[in-house]
Amino acid sequence: MQRKARLGRPPKPTRLRKTRRLQLLLTPAEHKRLSQYALERDATVSEVIRACIRSLMGQEGGTS
Asked: How far apart are CA 7 and CA 43, in angstroms?
């Protein structure tokens, strides 16, 4: 018997999966500034935050 091809996106490698959530509260002004900053860089707010965290931790460009 032949297997059917699975539809949809193939699964990500385990090391690239994002499985932890961080909750952060911002003022409306902070949120507006952060959203605008991300928009100007054609990025998501999450991408901007992750880049900031990597930079602060000395892991610029790395994924660990």
From this structure: 28
Please say whether the beta carbons of 43 and 35 come within 8 A: no
pLDDT per position as a tens digit, 13-60: 998 898 999 999 999 999 999 999 999 999 999 999 999 999 999 865
Cα separation, 46 vs 35, in Å, equals 10
What torsion, rounded to 10 degrees, do the Cα atoms 63, 7, 21, 19 define? -60
| Structure tokens given for 11 | 């699964």
Residue 18 one-letter amino acid: K
* Tokens matching residue 50: 């992750």
**DSSP SS3 for 30:** helix
pTM of the model: 0.69
